[in-house]
Write a structure and sequence with these properties.
The chain is an alpha+beta fold. It has one domain. The chain is built from 3 helices and 4 strands. It has a two-stranded antiparallel ribbon. The relative contact order is 0.08. One of its GO terms (molecular function) is structural constituent of ribosome.
């Protein structure tokens, strides 16, 4: 079985995680195996799954020990969404507000037109 050892528990097989190792030659000339750490995860945007720039990739425990400036970006939704998605949200919110204002103005115009007809 690739990347795991099969362990028999009654009739089921459980795949166990094996640590990855690398052969390294020491200064004394010996060839020894060193266990490798798991690869660091690159933070990604919650919406478009694009890589987040300005945030250091790290393992969860390592990230908990990092200072705040390495974990976030000083922007709205910094460290959660990429700049494109934030821009898209801001533009969408602005357009929705503009649309609400247009609807109010149209209702006011219709009401004033109705009042003029009744007179």
């Amino acid at each position: 079985i690739k990347n795991g050892a099969a362990v028999s528990l009654s009739t089921t097989f459980v795949l166990q995680h094996q640590k990855q190792s690398e052969a390294v030659r020491t200064p004394g000339g010996k060839l020894v195996y060193q266990y490798l750490k798991k690869p660091k995860k690159i933070p990604r945007c919650g919406q478009c799954k694009d890589k987040l720039r300005g945030i250091q990739p790290a393992r969860p425990m390592e990230r908990s020990r990092m200072c705040k400036r390495k974990k976030t970006v000083k922007r709205v939704y910094g460290g959660v969404l990429c700049h494109k998605c934030v821009k898209e949200r801001i533009v969408r919110a602005f357009l929705i507000e503009e649309q609400k204002i247009v609807v109010k103005v149209l209702k006011a115009q219709q009401a004033s037109a109705k009042a003029k007809k009744e007179k």
